[in-house]
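Per your request, structure below.
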């Protein structure tokens, strides 16, 4: 059991009863039975939040919603939690018996629900840490249980949400919505802040900054994002004539950068930071030509991985006696139907 007084660092507890008073709690990461959605908006009341949720094209209301309620009844940045049916958790493990296609479908459904909740401020960055939630049993928060009867399974969820959601696009859209600016203006700031963020991470890594190194050692992407935000917030605010909107975009960018950062690939010797196909482009001159080759390499790699995932899903569906259609395989793998169509094996 993992609990915490803040969302940055989780730790174990000697007494489960006392641990359940803590404001943050970690769900089981190996058997995932819930989807957590982090809503970055404040709502005038619980009734207002429920009304907004009821307008969404989803199969049910969240089973639990938990957040801070101030003295005026305003609900701040709640977590919406959707539960899978009892005994239907998805096994996440490196064990060869673990079904990768089901893990992919779980992730795709989680991303799809997040996309549906973007109008309510759903944070796509929270997809990287789906098990850390505001503890509904803690006296620090208030909560509501609005659904005790309907528990859709993964297949049902896949029929309601977009399982082909692109996370990068979703983060850019949420940044624009949160900032209240046009998409073009938001994209310009997003790209600029993203460049700053990765450069800052490289600088921190090279300087072996103590706080950064501790966060990397703990694999705490939230702490890395917080370091980035504190470092860049003044610079970002000065970049726009709307500082609050710029800060909102920076918040999304630093979350995205922290989630995608791999310190192991950041060498102190810049000449040694080589990509996966570095050996293949050694003889190619010109940045554009090398980028074209790298793009082709990445596309071929994605195509190969998708084909393997599709083939595995077909075999699993046949073994389970389920229909082998492109739509069904798309739901199983979490891939979009066009991707499944393009990778469909001959003769099936």
């Amino acid at each position: 059991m993992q609990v915490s007084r803040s969302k940055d660092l989780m730790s174990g507890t000697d007494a489960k009863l006392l641990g359940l008073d803590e404001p943050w709690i970690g769900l089981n990461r190996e058997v995932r039975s819930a989807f957590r959605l982090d809503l970055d908006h404040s709502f005038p009341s619980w009734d207002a939040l429920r009304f907004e949720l009821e307008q969404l094209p989803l199969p049910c209301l969240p089973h639990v919603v938990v957040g801070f309620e101030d003295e005026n009844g305003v609900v701040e940045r709640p977590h919406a939690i959707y539960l899978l049916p009892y005994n239907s958790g998805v096994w996440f493990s490196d064990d060869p018996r673990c079904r990768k296609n089901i893990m992919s479908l779980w992730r795709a459904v989680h991303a799809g629900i997040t996309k549906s909740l973007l109008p309510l401020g759903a944070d796509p960055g929270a997809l990287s840490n789906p098990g850390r939630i505001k503890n509904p049993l803690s006296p620090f928060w208030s909560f509501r249980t609005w659904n005790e009867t309907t528990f859709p399974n993964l297949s049902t969820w896949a029929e309601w949400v977009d399982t082909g959601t692109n996370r990068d696009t979703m983060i850019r859209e949420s940044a624009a919505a949160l900032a209240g600016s046009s998409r073009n203006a938001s994209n310009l700031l997003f790209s600029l802040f993203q460049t700053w963020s990765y450069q800052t991470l490289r600088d921190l890594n090279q300087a072996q900054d103590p706080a950064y190194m501790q966060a990397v050692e703990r694999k705490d992407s939230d702490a890395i994002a917080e370091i980035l935000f504190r470092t860049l917030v003044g610079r970002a605010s000065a970049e726009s004539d709307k500082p609050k909107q710029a800060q909102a975009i920076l918040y999304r960018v630093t979350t995205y950068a922290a989630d995608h950062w791999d310190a192991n690939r950041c060498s102190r010797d810049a000449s040694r930071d080589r990509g996966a196909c570095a050996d293949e482009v050694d003889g190619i001159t010109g940045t554009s030509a090398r980028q074209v080759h790298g793009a082709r390499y990445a596309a071929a790699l994605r195509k190969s991985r998708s084909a393997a995932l599709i083939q595995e899903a077909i075999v699993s569906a046949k073994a389970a006696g389920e229909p082998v259609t492109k739509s069904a395989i798309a739901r199983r793998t979490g891939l979009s139907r066009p991707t499944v169509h393009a990778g469909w094996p001959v003769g099936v």
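The chain has three domains: 2-164, 173-272, 303-348.

Regards,
D.
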